[in-house]
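BUG-139 | component: ligand-complex export | severity: low

The export step for guanosine-5'-monophosphate jobs runs without errors, but we want the raw record kept on the ticket for reference. Input record follows.
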Amino acid sequence: MAGMEETVFHKIIRREIPAEIIYEDAETLAFLDIQPMNPGHTLVVPKKFAKSIFDIDANAFAALMRAAHKLAPVIKDAVGADGINIGMNNSPAAGQVVFYAHVHVMPRFLNDGYELWHGKNYPEGEAAKIAEKIRAKLG
Ligand code: 5GP
């Protein structure tokens, strides 16, 4: 079925391939990213499959965020990090590589060399137009 392709995260959840699992609750599983941007980089996944933010239901997403909220300070302390980024890549254009919804909990260290992307200014009048388009869709 389209969009239901098996991923490595399905296998990790079923314990068919190894992973450093650090946390589990009824709805989520959290394990270390195999290629961390920094030590302690963790992925939180829903036990019930969703591909991305676009098909995960609100409760399952809230459960991911609850788990990330619980884990962030614990991971920060455990690895002695100075900060944490929370991220989610949705669709290839946004850098998603594994098509099983997941939230990144990424420890950051002062001067670790990573830069966040830089914003660019709206042309005159464009912000108001974009905001209006979004508000219209929200109804
Ligand atoms: P994204 O899809 O958000 O770009 O990132 C997928 C993440 O999954 C990457 O950071 C990558 O290192 C991680 N990853 C890919 N395959 C595996 C795996 O088999 N095990 C674990 N633990 N992480 C993986």
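Assignee comment: Attached the raw record above. The mean pLDDT is 96.
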